[in-house]
């Protein structure tokens, strides 16, 4: 079937077929907010998709809050956004979505105090809250503070291990000159479905944050982390269900001190979405901010995340290469990667320098470069071409 050529994506959630990339793409509705950042997604039992992110004037300001859009199963467009949170005294950030045993959607996010004069970063005041939806993301109940310890930050959703244990990757932000360089990764562990939690520290993980937990086999876990030195994605291992962890070690993948997203695919491969850029001369223990958050790539590993021989750029941005051209590229950052029951991969990230959130749907075969029919990826009659 032939589709009309359209000029490009629009901020209304309409899904288009990108014939060049072989992907399906959409710019999600913005809700009228000037900035959007840190998206997360979830597939519901009925096949609907949810995407949430934080929106408002500027990260760290008290008007920043969590909003959500729904993609009904087989729909050609994402729906207008709804508000999840709204504490006028705190900046609510870094949401994640989890389908709980109570058949409710849990939105977990951080809530930090508003900006203060002379303080650029109030993350050391953050706590983790949870709000729930029992109607598939249309409406949300009041918040509950789950982790009141100040400085607690999160990004990856709660992971359920094969023995039923819950593990939730966090990091601890401090109020110090080198706070961002010194923040360690920790894990919250629950063996009673979230009724009680205890904390496990990752040794020598200062400056390694945003841990993404992946279970390779029963009790054998790996965590992939953002590196504040902006050099490499780092990896740590646990062989006892997350009770103890190894010192983080660098992987071959570059990291620009920006968030990553890792998961184990149905095929058994590890997939990581990230910005494939880094600072060439990292300084040990010192946070770096190269500012180059373009393009967005997905890398695949067949050895538990030790090597990544397959990498594909899923977002090319404006297409300029090299540090000298970075001002010609807009920012495409904080990717979130998930796989739905049908095997399709779903990628969301802050797009066009946080103007909104972009959504991309593709398959593992698209990353591998294998030729295949577009079966099970999406109903092409519901998508337009561009």
Which sequence of strands runs across the widest sheet? 24-25-26-2-1-27
CATH-level-2 architecture:
6 Propeller
**What is the percent of helical residues?**
under 10%
Distance between the termini: 14 Å
Cα radius of gyration in angstroms: 20 Å
| Rounded mean pLDDT score | 93
Report the sheet-strand fraction.
35-45%
Number of DSSP helical runs: 2
Question: What structural class do the secondary elements suggest?
Answer: mainly beta
Q: For this structure, what is the CATH class?
A: Mainly Beta
Low-confidence stretches: 1-6, 372-381
Largest sheet geometry = 6 strands, mixed
The tally of domains stands at 1
Fold-level CATH name: Neuraminidase
Shape assignment: globular
SSE order:
EEEEEEEEEEEEEHEEEEEEEEEEEEEHE
Pfam family, one: BNR_2
InterPro entries: Sialidase, Sialidase_sf
Protein name: Expressed protein
Domain Sialidase: 47-347
Summarize the structure in short.
This protein has 386 residues and is mostly beta strands.
Give your account of this protein's structure.
The chain has about 375 residues and is mainly beta. It has one domain: 6 Propeller (Neuraminidase). Helices cover about 0% and strands about 40% of the residues. Strands 24-25-26-2-1-27 form a six-stranded mixed β-sheet. Strands 11, 12, 13, 14 and 15 form a five-stranded antiparallel β-sheet that branches. A four-stranded antiparallel β-sheet has the order 3-4-5-6, with no helix packed on it. A hairpin with an 8-residue loop joins strand 22 and strand 23.
